[in-house]
Write a structure and sequence with these properties.
Layout: H1 9-21, H2 26-39, H3 62-73, H4 87-90
Helix pairs in contact: 1-2
């Protein structure tokens, strides 16, 4: 199946940059993203160079890890702990 996708210029630049970091063409990089998404979290594809064993999720590339960190950082703000928060507050049930 052939598929034509028109990407905004900034998205194309980001995808090309991520693909370059991994030494892949943008087509290979996007195909891998689509395959991984289609497989879902239960059936993530294990490639020969992923270093993962069957039944184990493959290790994230540096680029994938950065994307996840960016998503985490751009998420909703987390509440701040109280001013008097200390280590004792964490371990109160472990005495």
């Amino acid at each position: 199946m052939s598929l034509t996708i028109h990407l905004p210029d900034d998205l194309e630049r980001r995808l090309r940059s991520l693909a370059d970091r991994e030494g892949r063409s943008i087509e290979q990089y996007v195909l891998n993203l689509i395959e991984r998404d289609a497989a879902g979290s239960e059936g993530r594809r294990v490639s020969e160079d992923s270093g993962a064993r069957p039944g184990q999720a493959p290790a994230l590339t540096d680029a994938e890890f950065e994307i996840l960190l960016d998503k985490l950082a751009s998420g909703p703000p987390l509440p701040h702990p109280p001013a008097d928060f200390s280590r004792a507050d964490i371990y109160t049930e472990h005495d």
